[in-house]
Amino acid sequence: MIAFLVRRAIGAVWVIVGVAVAVFLILHLTGDPAAVMMPPEATTQQIAEFRHNQGFDRPLWVQFGTFAWAALHGDFGNSLRHGEPALGLALERVPASLELALAALGLAVVVAVPIGVLAAVRRNSWLDLAARIFALVGQSAPVYWMGIMLILLFGVQLGWFPVSGIGGLKHLVLPTITLGLFTMAQLMRLTRASMLDVLKSDFLRTARAKGVRPLRLLWHHALRNAWLPVITVIATELVTLFSQAVITETIYSWPGVARLAVQAIVDRDYPIVEVVVILAALAFVAINLLTDLFYAALDPRIRYE
User: Fold this and answer.
1) Residue 149 and residue 219 in one domain
2) 82 located within any domain
3) Mean pLDDT of each 10-residue bin along the chain, 305 residues long
4) Is 0.85 topped by the overall pTM?
5) 22: containing domain
6) Do residues 136 and 185 lie in contact, with contact meaning Cβ atoms separated by under 8 Å?
């Protein structure tokens, strides 16, 4: 197990280095931030001073070396627009995005897993047909369209929920549904498919022949063996929801880190974009490692040597 953890830690370092290099090069290929940050009436000398003060006039490899060395010490520089440390600005927005992502994932799991199990048990029934139709619609409907429809129906017409900002539980309802619908549909289809494979297994027929109660047979034996692919999706979806909440946070004016990143991309605010992407990569690597460890706890046949 220790050797496995060491190998994964080394691999994680290379992943983070690759992400840092890629995002740095891609950002610097998008153009000069001075063209966006400086006012239209700025003189050539003022633009040159801005580029010099920010270090944009130095060779690219020198800029990356400076960035990498500072990042190792937790310093990603100051935001070009806000003039504050980029890491601090990003971390301030993380709780709001995490709240939205956890709510969306929790809703998806609570709804999708039981329905997926029941759809597999009652295959070709009306419940199974309804579940498959819902999964198809949920994975096909664009997020921005779903968000606008929910706002028009429940926010404008019925007035049940607020349509922007962060606040109490009511502010969380519409963004949660909008962000979690695709994940809900995906988990529903995956749970149904995994359960159908497990229900055909020989060990279930043996357990049924020995008189194991149907409810225990379903939830303890069948679902436990169908969990592994579902858990993989659940774990990775947390980071995916966290990083892909761009449209949802924009539609509902949710003050999360994804919305901050979008504005930073428009402004070519390099430090903000770099720190957001690297934080997302760190979260993805950490959750993948925890998922692998959870596999061993869930399935005794899995051992990491």
Assistant:
1) yes
2) no
3) 69 80 77 63 68 70 79 78 80 84 87 85 83 84 84 83 77 86 86 77 66 66 70 74 76 81 78 84 79 63 55
4) no
5) 2-72
6) yes
